[in-house]
Amino acid sequence: MNILYPLIIAALAGWLAGKIIKGGGFGNLVNIILGIVGGVVGNWVFKTLALSINSEVIGDLVTGLIGALVILFIAGLFKK
Fold it and tell me: Within a 10 A sphere around the Cβ of 2, how many other Cβ atoms?
């Protein structure tokens, strides 16, 4: 169960990021995969900036969403 929770949150964050960045997404499956990578990036960014969201599920989702948005934005630059 320890590995399933982060994957579900990251997949949801990737899906949401794909909906936010219209035209910049790559399809649901790739957005979910990029969301998983984005979750790692989001955690790194938040730790680097010494930021923290105390809420458990919402905080994890926001962190993953921000990371996924960054990854989708960068991936969108290479797509064009």
Answer: 5
